[in-house]
Amino acid sequence: MKVLVVGTGAVGAAVAAVAKRRSFFERMTFADLDPARPAAVVERDGDDRFAAAQVDAGDRDALVALLRETEADAVLNAADPRFNPPILEAAFEYGCTYLDMAMTLSGPGVLLGQEELDAHEKWQERGLLALAGIGVEPGLADVFARYAADHLFDEIDEVGVRDGADLVVEGYDFAPTFSIWTTIEECLNPPLVWEKERGFYTTEAFSEPELFEFPEGIGVIECVNVEHEEVVLVPREIDCRRVTFKYGLGAEFIDVLRTLHKLGLDSTEPVRVRGVDVAPRDLVAAALPDPATLGDRMRGKTCAGTLVTGKRKDGGEGAVYLYHVADNERTMREYGHQAVVLQTALNPVVALELLSAGTWAGTGVLGPETFPADPFLDLLADYGEPHGMVEGDPRRT
Question: pTM for the full model?
């Protein structure tokens, strides 16, 4: 398999650290608008299967040309979700498999990921696969939902994705551990909920707070509703009554996000500043430290997982939380990347290996919950990253 990775920021660089341990690919080319980024990845990871290239992720023609030049069998979109449409279109025009870790953005009257899902039939007719949302959330969280539906439950009441961490960044009053641009998009958009009898609906930002006890010493964290792709993807394939996503943001982070919104600093519309057009959100992102550079200052763990409730196959009502924890000390030691970005980067590499082997196969625009979960979780464990499972409901009153 020959792979083109578009976007060599924190997650794109972590993809290299994961992939270099595996033998399934022949060539992996890392591309970015800033040529220094992919060049640094190739130099740092020292794998002769790696190559560097320059490309504008917003230029479809340039992307098609690079796909042809690299003879890519698959393109992994590790760029900002704003660039999903041109990368998706370039993959379709060239004729290769497409993967991303976040779907096309929502808007007035537009569902999160709808632009990608609307392309399903044409991808299916062409015999091509676009694997949407194959990071950790969405991605591994969807795989957990598939596993629970296949092995643990006869009837599912709720699939509730829950994310929390006890990470601390030393030396900063405020330093997000993931892209602040994407975090603003997710957290300030109206949260999305799906119910079988009601369909999709939105709530107020940071709604329905609940206390959730995360495993492996992370502890109890207040989680709130956030817009996320699993709510869109999971009901397409898994029979359940409700799908939610809640994120353990913490009171300080919520206050910061609310202040940014109040001041209009979450806007993506450019404003004129001394003769230069600048989007306020881009300014915020530029003013904060790059999450990729924070690993040495971070300590703690991050947990991504899926809580499933309903009628168990072994009888009676019950709940199970399937999860993956990444310890920053370990990810820095073993991979050289901080826990949040490493946890995200693991899953598209696992998916690429399954696709390369033909273990996962399909056509159209599909989410991870479409495919059998067991091969994915088995391979994740082979990567040295096994998942965990907590019996019972970790929500606390």
Answer: 0.93
